[in-house]
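I had to read the description of the data format several times before I understood it. Each protein is reduced to its one-letter sequence and a matching series of backbone shape codes. The format is easy to grasp once an entry is in front of the reader. For illustration, here is how one protein appears when written out as sequence plus structure tokens:
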Amino acid sequence: MKHPFHNVNDFGAAGVAVPSEVLTMTHRTFKWLVYPEHTRARIYRAAEGAVYDSIGIQKAIDTAHEGGGGTVVVPAGDYLIGPLELRSRVRLHLEPGARLWGSPDMADYRPADGHAFPSYTHECGFGRENDRMNNKLRLISATEAEDIAITGSGRISAQSPAFIIPWMNTRPRHGGDLDRPSDTFLFHRCRRVMLQDFQLRDTPCWSIVFDHCREVQVRGIDLRGMDVINSDGIDLVDTSDVTISDCRFHVTDDVICLKNMTGGNTMRNVAVTNCVMRTLCNGLKIGTDTMGNFEDIVVSNLVIHNSEDDVRGGKGINLSTIDGGHVRNVVISNVVMRNVDCAFYVVVGCRSERQREFREPRPGSVSGVTLANIRAEGVKYTSFVAGHPDSPVQDVRLSNIRVCKAKDFYTEHPELVRDQPEHYPSPVMFGSLEDGDQVPAWGLYLRHVVEITVDGMTVVTEQPDIREPVVEDHCREVRLSGFRARVSPSVSETDRREHVLGR
């Protein structure tokens, strides 16, 4: 049986979005974000007296679903939408020139009947749910659906400037939290989901979320957002069997982030490849929510970049477990980074309060990690691998890595490092943004590590640093093969030192 095509124009979606106003930001600083002068945005609303296009688009989706499945086609035009819900066996296809504009009015994201839209939950694994993420306000969602897709070369804009700019302009006087929609896309307990080729713009918070999903494909997405805190790219929450490839990201927060909020659950079979990323946070991250486990993850062929005049350098790779989960069998290779705070950092911690909700607090574990063929330039902080005193990081291989350190040089030795199991994992978790990373090494710092092989790693510092190039604290079975640390040739000969370590 052939599934029919449904043109949304036949269901009343006429393309009613029109440019109605231009917002200009007058207060340009929030935390580390400094917006360019003359930051402006054109906001789309419905033409006067028009009905939102999402009503007709939803009718087309429902009709296709009720008929056993089909493709809902959105022709070229500007469509204003409120929240949409995708259905099983339906593909939403955006033709060239089709642009969906999310409503700029918060009232459109709050259900009229007082019931929350579908939410993803922290399921403790003991038959109890904690809806700490309930009442989230989504633009496009699907719940317990299968065989769903969004494809085509059109564009979806969540219009984040409509929420961010007015808040920024009034925040110095009124304060308060940013009132905004949350996840632009949320797929909850879905199977066989495909996102392909379209553009996603101006997401006001998390952009694409897969929660408790299976068999996910994301390919060829071009995601670019206005800088705002929490604007992640793709969040995989308790989700397995995932491929992400050939995407471009320009986000403020984590680009691709794996989270597990279910104690006892294991996320596995995740492959990420061929992506270009700009971020002010982590390009790839496991954490911070790590109640459950992660295994069999492969990441390759990434470019993580920031321009020198960007609002703040991003980070590269962060593998962490701080809520008792286990991270195993992770291979990351062929990564190029420019102007990042930290090339990589691996952390085992123990957030006690989070775990007490459902079990006796315990540190998780990290084992079986390979980082290979990595080049990072313009780096600020020292890369490190730091386990927990009761759970050292185990079985790590660092191979063919070159890091050029351009900032945060020390003329005095920092104080003795103390374990910080409750701290949020970051490149400055042993120090601070004001004081630097405060670790005793400028090249590589190892703490509570058992069985690590460093096979070909070079760290170049642009200025002299009094700290040691590599330091091991409470480590066993450390094998350094061709670790090379040196001061850049641009530094005077009297200040230049070269260290070649191998054992």
Q: What stands out?
A: The longest helix spans residues 53-66. Helices lie at 53-66, 161-174, 352-355. The mean pLDDT is 89.
